[in-house]
Amino acid sequence: MLAGFPLTEEQQLVADTALAFARDRVAPGAAARDHDGRYPDELLPVMAKLGLFGVKVGADDGGAGADAVSYALAIEAVSRSCAATGVTMAVCNLVADVLAGYGNGEQRARLLAPYLAGQRGAGSFCLSEPHCGSDAAALSTTAVRDGDYFVLNGTKQWVTNGAYAGLHIVFAKTSPEQKSHGISCFVVERGTPGLIVGKTEHKMGLRGSNTTQIVLEDCRVPTANLLGDVDRGYAIALANLDGGRIGIAAQACGIAAAALTEGVRYTRDRKAFGRSLAELQAIQFAVADSAIDVDTARLLTLRAAAAKDAGSPRTARESSMAKLFASEAACRVADRMLQVHGGYGYVEEYAIERLYRDARITRIYEGTSEVQRIVIARETLAG
Ligand SMILES: Cc1cc2nc3c(=O)[nH]c(=O)nc-3n(C[C@H](O)[C@H](O)[C@H](O)COP(=O)(O)OP(=O)(O)OC[C@H]3O[C@@H](n4cnc5c(N)ncnc54)[C@H](O)[C@@H]3O)c2cc1C
Fold it and tell me: Rounded to whole angstroms, what are the CA distances from 184 to 102, 111, 229?
């Protein structure tokens, strides 16, 4: 896939599986789903069957048992065809990783196994709230113990897969006087009284993905659905940030690569002043700069994933660099390749219009570009 980054047989197998799924099942409906704002509901069971719901989860728990490099390749492949399906899949994997990493044996058997078998729908990760995203530890949803239950109250904002999730990972304050040391992590199952799917957001891009509020009104969650220890939930959110950032970096790589492919195809076909656009040096420079952006984004993303696979204790710097560079590169490439389309880049008949809109969110979620710069600077200054 990328010169200078040889893949193992297993990584190639996962990449090939995801590429075939993307080509045969995801790509054909991508433009229509975007136009109609339609969620890729019908693709979820196929994803689950192919092991793309829990790529990094061990085979004992029903996952594909692959590594972070394989995961990045799979997210890139799917996002190349449809970034909305890419983020749907990325959040489903994030939920699987949290359950596999922090669920006890009973929870993994009861919740994770059927989820990975495609029997619980999508998963969602409810951290952000209307008043806080970057400063997530300032969340104000509360969880109060009442016998064998915790009673949850609050509103979660920007919940990807919100309306389609069978399992919601919800972060709530169990010790409101503490900030990050007073947060616990719960699994709230679809159908739990008091769990309400709120407003659906109408987005600029990723229109096929689903983004809602999740409202918790005296929502009684059994203590059996607490993940990890009370007041230790924020560590779960932080521990999964690196993996989440690699996933979004990979999504951005997919968008950038698709934009370059669309641009190159167009410049070969379109004529101006008696020559194809591809023969004009100004266009060639846009292609060259974009090719460098795509390869650099991919190398940084695969490096971050490989560092995780190698068990490096601190991969925040690598993950943040990959996420920052790949997301900004995706926006640059989509912008350049829209420009080479001229007026046709501005209408939905050409895929570049969707890619341009889809690219923009990658600079915002899973930590904004500003937050990534803070992390990179902190890690670099710490030596
Ligand atoms: C489509 C979509 C899907 C999402 N999916 C999910 C999801 O599934 N689960 C979930 O929990 N969240 C999700 N999010 C939320 C996302 O992670 C947040 O939007 C993001 O973290 C930014 O938070 P915010 O929107 O509250 O912006 P704010 O934190 O209010 O930031 C506003 C601006 O201020 C800047 N800023 C903030 N603090 C600093 C600082 N210290 N220094 C410099 N600049 C700063 C930010 O970079 C940004 O430019 C999603 C968001 C969107 C739009």
Answer: 12, 18, 7
The closest-lying atom of ligand 1 relative to the alpha carbon of residue 127 is 11
Q: What is the mean pLDDT of residues 93-101?
A: 97
Query: What pLDDT score was predicted for residue 242?
Result: 85
Handedness of CA 332, 337, 338, 340 (dihedral sign): positive
Residue 4 counted as domain residue:
no
High-pLDDT (> 70) share of the chain, %: 99
Query: For the chain, what is the mean pLDDT?
Result: 97
CA of 133 to the centre of ligand 1 (A): 4
Last residue of a domain, one of 175, 203, 236: 236
Q: Measured from the CB, is residue 371 less than 6 Å from ligand 1?
A: yes
For residue 314, is pLDDT > 90? no
Q: Is the pTM of this model over 0.85?
A: yes
| 3 state DSSP class of 127 | coil
Q: Which residues are designated catalytic?
A: 366
Nearest protein Cα to ligand 1, atom 24 = 133
Average confidence (pLDDT) over 91-104: 98
Distance (angstroms) between ligand 1 centre and the Cα of 128 equals 8
Q: How many angstroms separate the alpha carbon of residue 137 from the centre of ligand 1?
A: 12
Q: Under a CB-based contact definition with an 8 Å cutoff, are residues 201 and 80 in contact? A: no
Integer-rounded Cα Rg, in Å, for the chain is 21
**95, 357, 368, 378, best to mutate for ligand 1 pocket (most atoms within 8 Å of CB):** 368
pLDDT tens sequence across 183-218: 999 999 999 999 999 999 999 999 999 999 999 999
Phi then psi for residue 10, to 5 deg, are -65, -45
Q: Which of 90, 120, 150 is the last residue of a domain?
A: 120
Residue 142 CB–ligand 1 contact under 6 Å: no
Ligand 1 atom 22, closest CA: 133
Domain assignment present for 3: no
Atom 12 (ligand 1): residue with closest C-alpha? 128
- How many domains does the chain divide into? 3
Confidence of residue 1 (pLDDT cuts 50, 70, 90): low
What stretches of 60-121 show up as alpha helix (H) in DSSP?
68-81, 83-102, 105-107, 113-116
